[in-house]
Design goal:
The complex is a heterodimer of chains A (about 600) and B (about 180). Chain A is about 5% helix and about 30% strand. Chain A has about 600 residues and is mostly beta strands. Chain A has a single domain, classed as Methanol Dehydrogenase, Chain A (8 Propeller), CATH 2.140.10.10. Chain A is globular. Chain B is mainly alpha-helical. Chain B has one domain. Chain B contains six helices and one strand; from the N terminus they run ααααααβ. In chain B, helix 2 crosses helix 5 and helix 4 packs across helix 5. Chain B is elongated and about 60 Å long. Classes of the chains: A mainly beta (about 600), B mainly alpha (about 180). Chains A and B meet through strand 6, helix 4, strand 9, strand 10 and strand 27 of A and helix 3 and strand 1 of B.
Chain lengths: ~600, ~180
């Protein structure tokens, strides 16, 4: 049946009348009146430098909660006595599940930020959502869609349609897009003030990490070591939108470290060294700590003889110039894809200023953050076959031979061998999902992937003639089951203090509070453990794979836990064979908020 | 044990799979095959152009240089490659209690150690598998280096993805939009 236009109008008018008169509505009526924007204080450098103190007020204004990378909140309404009453307060469906490039769907890996009762979250394609959390519910204030070029970026994103969150600066929300832009959005209106192309997917570069604000700069890391990039860390002046510095993680001709790229392949030109996990910043020493990823090609280390600096290294950078103050390389001439890209966590123990780093190679490292001197190393995985151990003086694997051009370690993939099994597998160990640190208990909590995998070498003959092609020197398969754990290390001793074993790898990361630890599983489980005993006290299944870190905030005087749910990333494309039960998990995109 | 030739049982069973689908490749089948090639994650390892090479999905062979014929491609997609990363895309082909074992005569209990076969993340129907084979034959096998036309045929022209094949194409940054 069809109506001509006038009838349609009449009908619509009648329907509207029905809707607006004489109908009783449950729970607040049909239209949600958007709340007035409550004025927020600008997020100044001073506020950011003291982000750890704002956590007590219920704000979480920088990616790792504080600049030290602790992901520790002193909020204590939700504690080991009350956590049994924790339940869903509200949820909000987000977007960004569409595919692009080699990806069938996006996923959620972001850490929400909280300031003055507003949450700021991203989806995998870089849309930013501002959500008012007053009144025990979530109301979308605005959504900024950067209109990311899906195929352009998605075709060279090795590991998913990912975005790990925003940064706040003055009255701006600063975000990245997968296609390499830095975007500044007005915090109150959601209108984009400006955008700047920082990375170039034409070269295989994409951006997935959250920006780190240092003074008046946004620090950007890049991904793409699987595509023959030359990695970098870049600083953009947020007031002038100009680049302040860009430090390459692979030295150029004539620069220190170039001697660690030997052979005749010009391997350093496509040497990898991505920087896709947000680093940490120490205002007092004006130092940025940032991790560097794997060399390229990932597995064919005979293509790139030498130690391959500064891949698989922790870097300390001068914040004003980007100059490298010191470096510590964990896996020289890496044949495993053992990034050192993960965050570096600042802790002070027994008068020592340390920086902690949980590496993909399965080993947790402590370095003196003043000079990079190695302090201790301890494995956090149960299966570790690639080395027999770490030299307690040097911090290098015991098999490391500085006179050898191609390292072989205890077990390593190499040319002429059909395939090699090693543990941990190339996902780690521990991947990007962040650790947390409880400064009262001096416990460091690591989200663990308990894994082995099999790598087949396909020797590379030359650096890629064309960009945007995988340049890995082989590839992994997953013949064995992968599980996980949450492992605690006592940083006063450098020894393992406890392990909560899980059926699946931890792909979400950790939040620590005074007496609890929160983490998740890719089957949808979110759980809380006793911070000392690692005994499970609470759990909830979101019904959607969790691939993002939990955080906590306070509004209306009440504490909440927030976490994004919706698996994307590398796991369900490349590693799913090792966790076959997860094949039934469906794409999703949801913010969960829990309260008492 | 490594598999290099088809067993006669497997060949017979595959003939049935092939017969279930259109016997002749045509362009509509190939167009369907292109969609499935993307959806079923062939692109993950063999790349959009079929050139294969290393990558996070494993080290995949080149479909541009392949010498497999239609039936052999159908067989490989259906059964996967024991001991290699290539998954099996037809549900239940290795079931222990099946009446026939169309893939190399193997059932699940044979797929241990070096003969391990992974199941695809997305199963395909027999006609979808033959459509993928038709697509590979029509647009990938025997073709040289990928070019701009190949790339536009795969991705369309709404994206910058094919710019590297024609660097003079210029694009501005996308214009963000806000809803509030």
């Amino acid at each position: 049946m069809t109506f001509k236009k006038p009838y349609l109008h009449l009908l619509a008018g009648a329907a509207l009348a029905c809707l607006t008169s004489g109908v009783a509505y449950a729970d607040g009526g049909p239209a949600v009146e958007k709340p007035q924007t409550v004025k927020s204080a600008d997020v100044t450098t001073q506020r950011l430098d003291n982000a750890d103190k704002e956590l007590a007020d219920g704000n979480w204004i920088t990616h790792h909660g504080d600049l030290q990378g602790h992901r520790f909140s002193p909020l204590d309404q939700i504690n080991k006595d009350t956590v049994k009453n924790l339940h869903v307060a509200w949820t909000m469906a987000l977007g960004g599940v569409e595919g692009g490039g080699i990806w069938t769907h996006g996923g959620l890996e972001g850490t929400p930020l909280a300031d003055n009762g507003y949450l700021y979250v991203t989806d995998g394609w870089g849309s930013v959502y501002k959500i008012d959390t007053r009144g025990g519910k979530g109301t979308l204030m605005w959504k900024m869609d950067p209109k990311t070029d899906h195929d352009w970026a998605g075709a060279v994103a090795c590991c998913g349609v990912d975005n790990r969150g925003v940064a706040l600066y003055k009255d701006l929300v600063i975000s990245h897009t997968l296609d390499g832009r830095l975007v500044a959005t007005d915090r109150d209106t959601g209108q984009v003030k400006w955008q700047r192309q920082v990375a170039n997917p034409d070269k295989g570069e994409v951006v997935t990490g959250a920006p780190l604000i240092v003074k008046n700069m946004a620090i950007t890391g890049v991904a793409g070591a699987e595509y023959g990039i030359r990695g970098w860390i870049a600083a953009t002046d947020l007031d002038t939108q100009k680049e302040v510095w860009r430090t390459y993680t692979i030295p150029g001709k004539g620069q220190p470290g170039i001697e660690t790229w030997k052979g005749n392949n010009d391997a350093e030109v496509a040497g990898g060294g991505s920087t896709w996990v947000t680093g940490t910043y120490e205002p007092g020493s004006n130092t940025i700590y940032w991790g560097v990823g794997n060399p390229g090609p990932d597995w064919d280390n005979a293509f790139r003889p030498g130690d391959n600096l500064y891949t698989d290294s922790t870097l300390a950078l001068d914040a004003d110039t980007g100059k490298i103050k010191w470096h510590f390389q964990q896996t020289p001439n890496d044949p495993y894809d053992y990034d050192s890209v993960a965050e570096n966590v600042m802790v002070n123990v027994d008068g020592k200023k340390l920086v902690l780093h949980a590496n993909r190679n399965g080993i947790g490292y402590a370095m003196n953050r003043t000079d990079g001197k190695f302090e201790w190393a301890t494995p956090f995985v149960k299966q570790l076959t690639w080395t027999k151990g770490i030299n307690p003086q040097t911090g290098k694997p015991v098999e490391y031979d500085p006179h050898k051009d191609v390292q072989t370690y205890a077990i390593a993939p190499h040319r002429g061998q059909p395939y090699t099994d090693f543990c941990p597998g190339n996902m780690g160990g521990k991947n990007w999902p962040p650790t947390a640190y409880n400064p009262d208990l001096k416990l460091w909590y690591i989200p663990v992937i308990e894994s082995c995998n099999r790598v087949t070498i396909a020797p590379e003959k030359a650096i890629p003639a064309k960009s945007r092609e995988f340049f890995t020197g082989g590839g992994p398969t997953q013949p064995v089951r992968i599980t996980g754990s949450l492992t605690a290390i006592d940083v006063t001793t450098g020894k393992e203090a406890g392990k909560f074993e899980t059926h699946f790898p931890d792909l979400g990361g950790v939040l620590a509070t005074k007496d609890l630890v929160f983490s998740s599983q890719p089957n949808g489980q979110i759980y809380a453990l006793d911070a000392k005993t690692l005994k499970e006290l609470w759990s909830f299944n979101t019904g959607s794979g969790v691939n993002a870190p939990p955080m906590t905030f306070k509004v209306d005087g009440k504490e909440y836990i927030a976490i994004l749910a919706g698996t994307g990333g590398a796991w369900d494309k490349w590693f799913i064979d090792s966790t076959p039960e997860l094949k039934t998990m469906q794409p999703g995109s949801m913010l969960y908020v829990f309260g008492l | 044990m490594r598999i290099s030739v088809l067993t006669s049982a497997a060949a017979a069973a595959l003939a049935m799979v092939a017969l279930a689908a259109s016997a002749r490749a045509d362009e509509s089948q190939a167009a369907l095959g292109r969609v499935i090639y993307a959806k079923a994650n062939c692109v993950g390892c063999h790349k959009w152009h079929g050139g294969g090479g290393g990558g996070y999905g494993g080290a995949a062979l080149s479909l541009r240089k392949t010498e497999l014929d239609r039936d052999q491609i159908i067989m490989t997609v259906t059964c996967g490659r024991p001991g290699a990363g290539m998954p099996s895309f037809l549900r239940g082909v290795y079931d222990d209690d099946a009446k026939t074992h169309p893939c190399y005569g193997f059932s699940q209990k044979d797929l241990t150690g070096d003969n391990h076969v992974v199941e695809a993340g997305v199963f395909l129907r027999p006609n979808e598998i033959s459509a993928v084979a038709d697509y590979v034959l029509a647009h990938i096998k025997g073709h040289g280096e990928p070019n701009l036309a190949d790339c536009l045929a795969f991705f369309g022209d709404k994206s910058r993805v094919c710019d590297i094949y024609e660097p003079k194409r210029t694009h501005k940054m996308p214009t963000p939009s806000t809803v509030n």
